[in-house]
Amino acid sequence: MPVKAVAGDTITDAFPKFAKTVELSDGVAAFNEDTVLNLGDREAHTVEIDGDLAALALSHRLEDGTLESELAVHPELRARGLGTQLLQALRNYARETGNGALQLWAHGNLAGAQQLAGGQGFANVRTLYQLEMPLTAEVAEPQLTDGERIRSFDRERDGADWIALNAQVFATHPEQGALQLADLDARIAQDWFDAEDFLILESSRGEMLGYNWLKVTPEEGEIYVIGVAEKAAGHGYGTALMLAGLQRLRERGANTVALYVDGENERAVALYRRLGFTERTVDVQYRANR
């Protein structure tokens, strides 16, 4: 069963069923939202059996030449060496087309992923927590004292300013910090988007100081992405935005709220735990340089 290298847009028909099957089996999605929204920008490596996807890796090249990948094997076809075969093909591809470095996201850091990465000499270089909290208790009022206000997002007014602030807030975050207006519009086009759930914190002069973008689905509410301008840090704006977001999610009928946070962001992790969030899952990034 050879590994085939194909363009990501050639698997758009087969991908949804494959990804859903993996998610239902593992309890966690194998491919992140940016990958799902940008299949056409991904490089795919596939293993097929009888014309159906048996294993899949989706990759893209980072600015430093590193190949970043997510991979999955069909639940009914595991323990047959397909993951090892796919990973070896990725390592060869990384060496042949880039600087040889390969990064893997293991969403949920499941036992099979740990075994595969560890057996191939990959090191754990980054941890991303998914935290959760029940929305059963009353939420305190946000405290703003200098004429600031929290309002809903307006695409025409706020789009460019949000892209600039988001890039500043996530300057060291290779996925979130690289978003452009086209990426923003792709998310706005999703069924779940509601401008009333995208909260903007502005100063008395109308300057954007922070934001809390919420995502509400039938299953739960999510703090999709939250950020505060560096110059506005230390004034309690992060807490105010979190409280405003939790209030909004309760108004929308969400019973549970979830969020993702980088393990190295100790200030944010401390805030979320202080508000009552606990760990749900852990995503781990593994890396091998050659």
Automatic annotation (TrEMBL):
1D-myo-inositol 2-(L-cysteinylamino)-2-deoxy-alpha-D-glucopyranoside binds at E33, E175, K215, E222, Y260. GO terms for molecular function: mycothiol synthase activity. Acetyl-CoA 2 binds at I226, G227, V228, A233, G234, H235, G236, Y237, G238, T239. One of its GO terms (biological process) is mycothiol biosynthetic process. Pfam families: Acetyltransf_1 (PF00583). Acetyl-CoA 1 binds at L71, A72, V73. Its EC number is 2.3.1.189. Keywords: Acyltransferase, Repeat, Transferase. Coiled coil: none annotated. It comes from the Bacteria. Residues 1-138, 148-290 form the N-acetyltransferase domain. It catalyses: 1D-myo-inositol 2-(L-cysteinylamino)-2-deoxy-alpha-D-glucopyranoside + acetyl-CoA = mycothiol + CoA + H(+). Monomer. Belongs to the acetyltransferase family. MshD subfamily. Catalyzes the transfer of acetyl from acetyl-CoA to desacetylmycothiol (Cys-GlcN-Ins) to form mycothiol. This is Mycothiol acetyltransferase. The gene is mshD.
